[in-house]
Design brief:
Structural class of chain A: alpha+beta
CATH architecture of the largest domain in chain B: Sandwich
Number of strands of chain A: 12
Oligomer: heterodimer
CATH architecture of the largest domain in chain A: Beta Barrel
Strand content of chain A: 25-35%
CATH class of the largest domain in chain B: Mainly Beta
Largest sheet of chain B: 9 strands, antiparallel
Number of strands of chain B: 18
Order of helices and strands of chain B: EEHEEEEEEEEHEEEEEEEHEH
Number of helices of chain A: 4
Number of domains of chain B: 2
CATH superfamily of the largest domain in chain A: Cyclophilin-like
Shape of chain B: globular
């Protein structure tokens, strides 16, 4: 695996460059390149060193990278809306987050659903998107000891990151709500609801007590 | 294509369907999975005349008992087990015929940890996102994304072509539960105290019982960081040695996540990963530092071994 590193920051433009570089490398379709995955500010190129010369691969990546240096703005696009039931049994940590913030659970809902988030990266499990950035007032740190079992669809906060658990798994994020939107289905033509660079808004479901 | 079946009588400790892995979807967080020892997986396929990406069965420490409902050609590569068919010993690293109604029974493991059962035509479980590899945590591939259970029926080719008898020396397995693995430092080796790399290269690490297909936790002296800076999560590959804050390294293996937030002090070179795949909890690893050039040369040497094996068909009939 070859790792292309950009400036180590969590920044939409740096992230957009990484996503674009990953797309360009993928489009080149060089034989021996097995997979290309962008991170926040990195791109991983998984390759078979027996099929492709490492030096040649590095040169072609550098060439593509030089072409996207001029990228200074993130393209506008419509956010994907995810309906969330906040609080109660659906969001068992909402009171803890409210206590952290010194606010009411209703304000946690208001501030969490007020922002448009960017999908910086997917990882952890299929379809798990790392979204940023959460309002610093409610950016509660993750639990010291992770839960053994977080139900699929749980919406959580970990510092300035937020995200949705696509499958039931262990997890340490502060759970504030739940969505029934299927985040990942390998049988769909596009398996993941969210892809790197997408924008997301959480929409509180009407009738919520919070 | 007529389908036959192999029935699982006893599943063994952890027997999974694996092909070379689910590449192409890591950007969506889909883990690659695939064999812990790619070399032996490929050799098992080669011995029965399959493509390298055909699905084999990965057997872990305690092997299964399988009932062949249809005639097939089979080969076992990787870890050495006592294996029998109707009371007769079955050779490792060699293709052989199974007749309808015969049982392939795994006994004790003699050396190594994981064996690969190659079956002519491959195991034909459905592909998920282009691959048959089982990923246990995300429950994808194989049979229901899980390890085999008694009563499972694995679809295979009912009438494989007659294939030449093939035999090949396998991987030189770690002896005495010790593997020497070459490591290229990086990408965050400079995040660690200066002594960390020296420490890593001078002591043995024990594979912890808290190890699995995702990764091996390694017990040994802690590899301490020089600064408390947090790494921004980034994609990771098989063989990466990531080190959480307490300094206990984790060697990432086949079922690793696609990304991780711990700094990585180095990567086990691809040529030596099959050896890592032959380790079990309680075994030991000695790391040897090396350079990228040596890593590529070692991989070419490993590949030549497979090519030589392919050339050594004996043209007897199985």
């Amino acid at each position: 695996m070859l790792l292309v590193e950009f400036e180590p920051v969590i920044d939409p433009i740096v992230n957009e460059r990484a996503i674009m570089l990953a797309a360009r490398i993928r489009e080149r379709g060089a034989s021996g390149v097995l997979d290309v995955a962008p991170g926040y500010c990195t791109v991983a190129v998984h390759f078979d060193p027996l099929q492709i010369d490492l030096g040649a691969l590095e040169r072609s990546i550098a060439e593509e990278a030089s072409r996207i240096e001029g990228l200074v703005a993130v393209p506008a696009k419509a956010p994907i809306e995810i309906a969330v039931t906040y609080g109660g049994e659906h969001g068992p940590d909402i009171d803890a987050v409210a206590a952290y913030a010194g606010c009411t659970p209703a304000e946690v809902v208001k501030w969490h659903s007020a922002r448009t988030y960017r999908v910086y990266m997917l990882g952890f499990v299929p379809g798990f998107a790392y979204l940023g950035s959460v309002d610093p007032r409610i950016a509660a740190p993750r639990h010291r000891a992770p839960r053994e079992r977080v139900p699929a669809g749980s919406v959580g906060i970990a510092g300035e990151q937020t995200g949705v658990y696509p499958v039931t798994s262990p997890g340490g994020w502060q759970l504030i709500g739940h969505t029934s939107s299927p985040m990942f289905d390998p049988d769909r033509s596009s398996p993941s609801l969210l892809a790197p660079g997408d924008l997301v808004r959480f929409v509180p479901r009407l009738g919520d007590g919070a | 294509m007529i389908l036959g079946a192999v029935e699982v009588i006893r599943p063994g400790l952890l027997t999974t369907v694996q092909d070379l892995g689910r590449f192409g979807h890591q950007a969506l967080g889909v883990p690659v999975s695939g064999p812990m020892d790619r070399f032996s997986h490929r050799l098992a396929n080669q011995l029965v005349g399959n493509d390298a990406n055909a699905a084999t069965l990965e057997v872990t420490l305690i092997g299964p008992e399988l009932l062949f409902a249809t005639a097939s050609v089979v080969a076992i590569a990787g870890a050495v087990f006592d294996v029998s068919c109707d009371g007769r010993a079955v050779p490792m690293g060699e293709s052989f015929a199974m007749l309808p109604g015969q049982r392939l029974r795994f006994g004790r493991v003699v050396q190594g940890a994981r064996a690969y059962i190659g079956i002519a035509g491959g195991v034909l479980t459905p592909r998920v996102l282009g691959s048959r590899a089982t990923h246990l945590v995300s429950r994808m591939g194989g049979i229901g994304g899980r390890a085999l259970l008694a009563g499972d029926r694995l679809p295979v080719l009912a009438e494989p072509d007659r294939r030449p008898h093939r035999k090949a020396p396998g991987l030189t397995l770690p002896t005495g539960g010790r593997a020497r693995l070459r490591v290229v430092p990086g990408p965050q080796d400079h995040w660690f105290q200066r002594e960390a790399l020296e420490t890593m290269a001078s002591v043995s690490f024990r594979v912890s019982p808290r190890s699995n297909r995702m990764g091996y936790r390694l017990e040994g002296p802690p590899l301490l960081r020089a600064s408390a800076a947090e790494l921004i999560s980034e994609p990771v590959g098989m063989g990466a040695i990531q080190v959480p804050g307490a300094g206990e390294p984790i060697l990432l293996m086949a079922d690793r996540q696609t990304a991780g937030g711990y700094p990585k002090i180095g990567h086990v070179i691809s040529a030596d990963l099959p050896l890592a795949g032959q380790l079990a909890p309680g075994d030991f690893i000695e790391f040897i530092l090396c350079e990228r050039k040596e890593a590529v040369a070692a991989l070419i040497a490993r590949e030549r071994q497979l090519l030589r094996s392919a050339a050594r068909e004996t043209h007897e009939h199985a």
